[in-house]
Specification:
252 residues; alpha/beta; 10 helices; 8 strands; 44% helix; 15% strand; globular; binds 1,3-dihydroxyacetonephosphate
Length: 252
């Protein structure tokens, strides 16, 4: 099963999000994509309006972050129960914009993902190196440092298998620079090895993210250890997003 997930970041207003969700729900319901899951993550103020539009359609709704506590004095945060109440079934955690712009730490990101996991919201755990870290030959080390605190926390959790990892090299996000096949295959291999060492089960989907577009996705989704994509810019255009879903479906 492939996953094509759209991360809408803070790009759209509430009305625009509703309009885009309608178009996506419509193509997802009209066509049959038995091998591809379609996920969308609108920004928090848009979730309530988008939720009824994708309800009872093949489109899964998700959030872009969640706190590790269930409730309390955490201004600006969203809790996992709140997101579930809104109809979310997944949540992105550790996106590079959270790590690099907002200074979220590896430990906090692990706690966010762990809370989502134990409450039954699928975390999409993002990892990825900066350009400088890649140039310094530190890609595998950075991925291990980002993923390990989460793997450490979930060792004691029986439902650990229900999560997704997204490899998003920071230098490829929103830049038009896509990682090449070798770089993606290698990084996904590192992630799958880490998962294999830490868990009994290794059927965790690993998505690629970073300037995914219809014209480069066929090559990316053909890489054997790539299970789909986490898409920013191209997910904001329903036609491009539909094309990505169709490419994933063809390769499945
Ligand atoms: P772009 O597809 O715009 O490069 O964004 C990728 C991303 O950050 C998805 O989470």
């Amino acid at each position: 099963m492939a996953i094509v997930a759209g991360n809408w970041k803070m790009a759209l207003g509430v009305g625009e999000s509703v309009e885009l969700a309608r178009k996506i729900a419509s193509f997802a319901s009209d066509a049959n994509y038995p091998h591809t899951e379609i996920w969308i993550a609108p920004s928090p103020p848009c979730l309530g309006a988008v939720s009824p539009i994708v309800q009872n359609t093949p489109v899964k709704l998700g959030a872009q972050n969640a706190h590790w506590e269930l409730k309390g004095a955490f201004t600006g945060e969203s809790s996992v129960p709140q997101l579930k109440e809104l109809g979310c079934s997944f949540v992105i955690v550790g996106h590079s914009e959270r790590r690099h712009i907002f200074g979220e730490t590896k430990g906090d990101i692990a706690k966010r993902a762990h809370r989502a996991l134990i409450e039954g919201l699928t975390p999409v755990f993002c990892v990825g190196e900066t350009e400088k870290e890649r140039e310094d030959g530190k890609t595998a080390l950075i991925i291990a440092e980002q993923l390990s605190p989460f793997l450490e926390l979930i060792k004691e959790t029986s439902s650990y298998a229900n999560f997704v990892v997204a490899y998003e090299p920071v230098w490829a996000i929103g830049t038009g620079k896509v990682a090449n096949v070798e770089q993606i295959e290698e990084a996904h291999g590192v992630i799958l090895d880490l998962l294999g060492e830490a868990l009994d089960k290794t059927s965790i989907p690993v998505l690629y993210g970073g300037s995914v577009k219809p014209d480069n996705f066929s090559e990316i989704i053909s890489i054997p250890n790539v299970s789909g994509a986490l898409v920013g810019g191209a997910s904001l255009d329903s036609e491009k997003f539909r094309k990505l879903v169709e490419i994933a479906e063809e390769r499945a």
